[in-house]
Amino acid sequence: MREITFGQIADEVAKLTKACSSLTPSCKRAMGCALERERNANAVFALEMLAENARVAEANGLPVCQDTGMSVVFVKLGQDVHITGGLLTDAVDEGVRRGYRDNGYRASVLDPVTRINTRDNTPAVTHVTLVEGDKMELTFLPKGFGSENMSRLYMLTPSAGMEGVKSCILEAVRLAGSNPCPPMVIGVGIGGTAEKAMLLAKEQLLREVGAPSEDSTLAELEREMLSKINALGIGAQGFGGDTTAIGVHIAKYPTHISALPVAINVQCNAVRLAHTVI
After folding, report:
1. 276: closest CA among 7, 1, 19, 82?
2. What is the value of pTM for the model shown?
């Protein structure tokens, strides 16, 4: 049994929050490719401004976006790890609290009923998965709510089939319009229960932007949906053009014989992620 302390976890999470100031390498590549192929002058201008904003933010340690989001932390916890000094979720919250304070990031978290701000961007949303081994893997996703508010869950009947799934994905993007600051990354979860589908969709935002599914059927569906989404013409920042999305990531999970859940989670153009292993 290996011990990992409360303090170690908090320290690492605090470091991960710096992700709010930089785009992931795969996002930069995808945005660069979008700019190279864009034919709409207004969209070219928008993509150039997004790229310049990202460069300035990273160079100066500033937030890529004023919305530094609600902290979502995915934990893969080795079953041979023993956490000492406090609860895992409390350690994650301490790291978020410290990181957002020290970096001057906006506190955006509040009580949903009273609307009173917690003032330190806690609590985080922490998802824990038990795995083999004696290590802890942490992935930090600061989720802005211009995109998060565009999330959708469809509880289809099996008769809707894959055409129904495709229609739901397109409808979700069409209804989102320019609200999530496109170009977007679209995470899709098919199957499971309502909450499982939503979690699957959120987890797809952790993939490298544009990386195809290892399932060949899903990879083909991702390519098809990316093409159809870009044909909608919403474009960068809603200016029209060729690039409404820079990635569609789809996962599936077995479901009940009478169900076909489809969840869509949208990520804005500012894909910010950080990862570490303790």
Report:
1. 19
2. 0.96
